[in-house]
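User: Sequence in, structure out. Go.
Assistant: Echoing your sequence, followed by the structure tokens.
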Amino acid sequence: MPNREPNDPSIHTSHQLLERVREVLGESLERPLAPGLYLVATPIGNLGDVSLRALSVLARANIIAAEDTRHSRKLLSHFGVTGELTPYHEHNAARERLRLLARIRAGSSVALISDAGTPLISDPGYKLVREALDAGLLVSAIPGPSAALAALTSSGLPTDTFLFAGFLPPKSGPRRTRLEELKSSPATLVFFEASSRVARSLTDLAAVLGPREAAVAKELTKLHEGLTRGLLDELASHFAEADELKGEFVIVVAPPSAEDASATDDVIVANLKAALQKESFRDAVRSVAENLNVKRSRVYELGLALDRGDEAP
């Protein structure tokens, strides 16, 4: 830390900031936490990213349900949080869900945290939230760190519309099938990936999606954080030649170009057949053209060919 003169205004500002943090956190800690389920986002690497509200909820919760208690105990110990910690993961969720809901009904507050980031994003918890809501119990989100959003916003790719697709299948065949399903989505795609599969996934992404712009973020907010940008085929080659990869990765892929996004004749005909089951020819042509963002004249010609029993032109 650089030496600062006693009259340095930044010292006064720092003292004011610390005092204000103590006041805000202290006032929050004095208020009892209402019975309910609290979805608390925790740091994805840098512990400084934890919010004051997250600390306040974790400190006051009667129970903290964590995906991996050994991992979460390190975070809680760092901030001096000593509440009851219980495991909640995919292997015990059916049993623990009933127990946690019963505790909330009895007046307890339950904080749900994942290993890192925002709960329910590629982590268990969806059924717990749904059943809590169905039972009329309080569910409150305490927003904060998210690897998906951190990678998206730092990628330099469009952020107005995006699709978080989680982890791709581990084997190439199912992975390419899944990518074919996502290929025409008019959104920036965001994937989580294990370090051992990054290069192979990028190869499949390039093969299915073509030379789209993409970015690969690794170890976000951590010491060895990095972001590599380029076309998918370039990134596939780069990571195939890289030394042993370690850490957590997020792959962000640009949406298809206008030309790539154009619906094929087969897609138009399939949609037209479905529409004709419930609409007149004229209405079906109009709705398909609007839904697929293609010219009505093109849909009309394909519809006439379909009516004649011809092959699609």
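User: And one key feature?
Assistant: Residues 170 and 197 are 7 Å apart (CA to CA).
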